[in-house]
Automatic annotation (TrEMBL):
Pfam families: DAPDH_C
Enzyme class name: oxidoreductase
Catalytic activity: meso-2,6-diaminopimelate + NADP(+) + H2O = (S)-2-amino-6-oxoheptanedioate + NH4(+) + NADPH + H(+)
Lineage, broadest ranks: Bacteria, Bacillati, Bacillota, Clostridia, Lachnospirales
Alphabetized UniProt keyword annotations: Amino-acid biosynthesis, Diaminopimelate biosynthesis, Lysine biosynthesis, NADP, Oxidoreductase
Entry protein name: Meso-diaminopimelate D-dehydrogenase
GO MF annotation terms: diaminopimelate dehydrogenase activity
Enzyme Commission number(s) of this protein: 1.4.1.16
Originating organism: Blautia intestinihominis
Family: Belongs to the diaminopimelate dehydrogenase family.
Length: 328
């Protein structure tokens, strides 16, 4: 029997989870829940239906795992604990500083209801966190580096769009190649913010807008751009649509460390991602963790978990014997 999946929130991630379910034959999409009028939300799966979120509780026995696809800023802090009352849940909460608080809230709800809630699943947090943990546990005498990009930063793109005279814009975060090379060579460099990443902006300005002022406002914007070397390109609306409508991302998690009595040997561990679509990749990670949530719940586990608490075998559609035969 397949694992019955529900999606709550149908944005980029919700659509990505729908695609990921299609690529995992042991998962089946049963329902999509939205806060909008369900008749306005069109999904791709013929065998599933769209419901208003208020209908979700009634379907608690028809769904094995509910995947929460709302935004981290305001949706998930409220939605994940709420729906953990009725469902096993998985979310992709990515406000790193607020993870402890979110964990406590979901743990309380899921422990009381007897469900499993896996939070902060994706690539960062998620696969990057896991790789940082593995590398730290192995190379205890070393240094961690995380580089992001090349990819679109939604927050920085929003910040550009809020500037007076800007019609639309996209921002890419790009790792500095020389810094990456120094880290890969085991040089253990001390890197400032400016030395690790650059920022590249593609901006559509309103007609007659003062381009020099816009460029200056971007480059000097505190917290977003002032600590980086930033390049600004003014382009047309058509060019933005044609060349910059994707949501690519990726990055590198690297740890270099020393072993030997006198630290004589160096080692470098690197995990890298190059993603055409950030939400579709994130959703593929979520699908694997939804399988884990179901299995852990079947075993009687409950409460909140993160990627650190889920043994790798729970993620795979293959059983233990198959895994030992092919992957060991
Ligand atoms: P979106 O803005 O696309 O969607 C968020 C919510 O907004 C949806 O669940 C949906 O809820 C609502 N919404 C979407 N489209 C519309 C629309 N046209 N009109 C009105 N409401 C709409 O966000 P993403 O899916 O891109 O990202 C969700 C979260 O995923 C992000 O906040 C981020 O924190 C997290 N994330 C985590 C990653 C990780 O590595 N851990 C990586 C990438 C993202 P409803 O259907 O109820 O209206």
């Amino acid at each position: 029997m397949s694992i019955r999946i529900g999606i709550l929130g149908y944005g980029n991630l919700g659509r990505g989870v729908e695609c990921a379910v299609k690529h995992n034959p042991d998962l089946e999409l049963v329902a999509v829940f939205t806060r909008r009028d369900p008749s306005t939300v069109k999904i791709l799966t013929d065998t599933a239906s769209v419901y208003h979120v208020d209908e979700a509780e009634k379907m608690k026995d028809k769904i094995d795992v509910l995947i929460l696809c709302g935004g981290s800023a305001t949706d998930l802090p409220e939605q994940t604990p709420k729906y953990a009352q009725w469902f096993n849940v998985v979310d992709s909460f990515d406000t790193h500083a607020r993870v402890p608080e979110h964990f406590a809230n979901v743990d309380k709800a899921a422990s009381e209801s007897g469900h499993v809630g896996i939070i902060s699943v994706g690539w960062d947090p998620g696969m990057f966190s896991l790789n940082r943990l593995y590398a730290n546990a192995i190379l205890t005498n070393g240094k961690d580096y995380t580089f992001w990009g090349k990819g679109v930063s939604q927050g920085h793109s929003d910040a550009i769009r809020r500037i007076d005279g800007v019609k639309d814009g996209k921002q890419y975060t790009i790792p500095v190649e020389a810094a990456l090379e120094a880290v890969r060579n085991g040089e253990n460099p001390e890197l400032t913010t400016r030395q690790k990443h650059t920022r590249e902006c593609f901006v559509v300005a309103e007609e007659g807008a003062d381009l020099a002022r816009i460029e200056n406002e971007i480059k000097t914007m505190p917290n977003y751009f002032d600590e980086y070397d930033t390049t600004v390109h003014f382009i047309t609306e058509e060019e933005l649509k044609r060349d910059h409508s994707g949501i690519p991302h990726g990055g590198f998690v690297i740890r270099s460390g020393k072993t030997g009595w006198n630290d004589e040997n160096s080692h470098v561990i690197e995990y890298s991602l190059k993603l055409d679509s950030n939400p579709e990749f994130t959703s593929s990670v979520i699908a694997a963790y939804a399988r884990a949530a179901y299995r852990m719940s079947q075993e009687g586990q409950k409460g909140c978990k993160t990627v650190f608490d889920v043994a790798p075998a729970y993620l795979s559609a293959q059983d233990g014997a198959e895994l030992r035969k092919h992957l060991l």
